[in-house]
Design goal:
Blueprint: H1 2-14, E1 19-21, H2 25-33, E2 45-47, E3 56-58, E4 83-85, E5 93-95, E6 104-106, E7 114-116, E8 126-128, E9 136-138, H3 142-148, E10 159-161, E11 183-186, E12 193-198, E13 205-210, E14 216-220, E15 224-226, E16 233-241, E17 244-252
Parallel strand pairs: 3-4, 4-6, 5-7, 6-8, 7-9, 9-10
Antiparallel strand pairs: 1-2, 11-12, 12-15, 13-14, 13-16, 16-17
């Protein structure tokens, strides 16, 4: 009997805390830096218990400069969230249908083409979503949203409906790599300079360099970037060219 009591006492200690999948390194880095992670940077996850009681989440600074976030996968486990400001990042799709307590949403100035706010709480929501590539939004009540949300795009109009017939992969997660099919970085790791090669691109491009907390360090359009003024670690480059934005990792050794 003593052994059984001891076993049941130890089991809770040995249990593994539930984790939430967060594939975007900038989003994960922000959560880690603000006490909402799991203490292991860049393992694509955070501890669910650290986020499911959060009520307020602002993913930009006081000057409305974002953290280069492309993918908000993991936001669905912020089950207590009533305020979400993810303005001014590079998010391509957003699904907040599981955030049933959400009263305020600002997802303006992103690259969103698919947006689902069908959370059963639209009547209590204030929403702002200026995104030039967005034309249709999935909502609880299309008539109510058309009547009450005419202001949300600052002059941009949307089709509110129960089903936008988005492509099947519209809300799929974004894979962040050290190299992509189009972008190569070398040398990587580096102790100073990193060179960017974009295959088949002869047009202007823009690069934003972020640290692991999501802090913007520099913006440049040079093909060679110096990291000599920054400490050793992992950095994220957001590379915008043509109508595409890709994110790649750089290791400063």
């Amino acid at each position: 009997m003593k052994r059984l009591i001891l076993l049941f006492t130890i089991l809770p200690i040995l249990s593994i805390a539930q984790q939430t999948y967060v594939p975007d390194d900038n989003f994960e880095g922000y959560l880690e830096a603000n006490g909402m992670g799991n203490g292991i940077p860049y393992d694509d996850s955070v501890t669910t218990a650290n986020i499911d009681t959060i009520t307020h989440l602002s993913l930009n600074n006081n000057w409305n400069i974002g953290y280069g976030i492309i993918d908000l996968t993991g936001i669905e486990d912020f089950s207590s969230l009533n305020y979400l400001n993810c303005c001014c990042n590079q998010i391509t799709s957003l699904d907040v249908s599981k955030l049933t307590n959400l009263n305020y949403l600002d997802c303006s100035n992103n690259l969103i083409t698919c947006l689902n706010v069908q959370n059963g709480n639209n009547y209590n929501m204030e929403i702002y979503t200026y995104n030039p590539n967005l034309s249709c939004i999935e909502v609880d009540d299309p008539f109510w949203s058309t009547t009450n949300w005419d202001y949300i795009g600052w002059g941009q109009s949307y089709n509110f409906t129960l089903n936008c017939n988005y492509p099947s992969n519209c809300f799929s997660t974004t894979t962040i790599q050290e190299n992509t099919n189009s972008i190569n970085l070398y040398p990587n790791p580096t102790n100073n300079l990193i060179t960017i090669d974009i295959e088949g691109n002869n047009k202007p491009f823009n690069v934003e360099v972020y640290d692991f907390t999501g802090r913007l360090l520099k913006t440049t359009n040079n093909t060679t970037i110096s990291l000599k003024d920054y400490p050793k670690g992992i950095y994220l480059l957001n590379v915008a060219y043509g109508d595409r934005v890709e994110q790649v990792k750089v290791v400063r050794k």
